[in-house]
Design brief:
This protein is an alpha+beta fold. It has one domain (26-89). Helix content is 36%, strand content 30%. The chain is built from two helices and four strands. The strands form two sheets. A two-stranded antiparallel sheet has the order 1-2. A hairpin with a 4-residue loop joins strand 3 and strand 4. The radius of gyration is 17 Å and the shape is globular. The model is unreliable at 1-7 and 18-23 (pLDDT under 50).
C-alpha cells in the first residue's frame, strides 16, 4: 500500500502555514483513476437495459472488476492507466 501526503501551504516571515492536507491510499488512487477514465470518456461505461447507471468498477480485497464496453481505444486507455498506476504504486 502506498500513502501519499499532499500538503499545500505558504511561508510567511519564516513560518509555514498549512492550507490543505490530504491522505490518499492506493485503493483511492485506483478508484479515482478508473472513475476519471469513465468521466472523460476514455473508457465507455456500460449502460443497463433500462438506461440506469452501471458501476464502472468494483474493488474487493485483492481483486478489481472493471465494467466497460470493450473497444480497442477503451482497452488501450485502460491498459495505459494501469501501467501508470503500476509505476506509481511500485
Amino acid at each position: 500500500m502506498i500513502d501519499i501526503l499532499i500538503v499545500r501551504g505558504v511561508f510567511i516571515k519564516g513560518t509555514f502555514y498549512l492550507l490543505y492536507f490530504s491522505y490518499l491510499s492506493e485503493e483511492v488512487l485506483l478508484s479515482r483513476g478508473i472513475s476519471q477514465l469513465a468521466s472523460t470518456h476514455k473508457i465507455i461505461p456500460m449502460i443497463s437495459r433500462k438506461g440506469k447507471d452501471f458501476p464502472t468498477h468494483v474493488l474487493y480485497v485483492d481483486e478489481i472488476f472493471v465494467f466497460f464496453r470493450v473497444n480497442r481505444k477503451s482497452l488501450i486507455n485502460l491498459i495505459e492507466f494501469l501501467h501508470v498506476y503500476d509505476s506509481i504504486s511500485g
